[in-house]
Design brief:
alpha+beta; Translation Initiation Factor IF3; 4-stranded mixed sheet; about 25% strand; globular
């Protein structure tokens, strides 16, 4: 993913509300399942790492992205953004 594409996705994600929250149990199969379902429906999601999570936010973002086969677009504070295009017909068209 190029920096131009990343900037495009960051701009789109700025208006989103977090749809997945990661709590004290960290990255569980349920969290990955929630991320996977949300990515399939929306392609671009924002996730929130709660204060009671003992893991680093960047590590949580990388783990979620890797297990959900998604790209980590950005990590800011306790939130991160994931992107994965739909398999059959992508809705978000990235710039070249």
């Amino acid at each position: 993913m190029t920096s131009k594409q990343r900037a495009f996705l960051r701009k789109m994600a700025s208006k989103l509300d977090p749809v997945v929250s990661i709590g004290k149990n960290g990255v569980t199969p349920e969290v990955i399942s929630s991320c996977d379902e949300a990515l399939e429906a929306r392609e671009l999601i924002k996730c929130n790492v709660l204060d009671n999570c003992m893991e680093e936010v960047r590590a949580v973002a990388d783990t979620c992205g890797g297990r959900a086969r998604a790209d980590v677009v950005q990590v800011i504070g306790r939130k991160f953004v994931l992107y994965r295009p739909k398999k059959d017909k992508p809705v978000i068209v990235l710039p070249k």
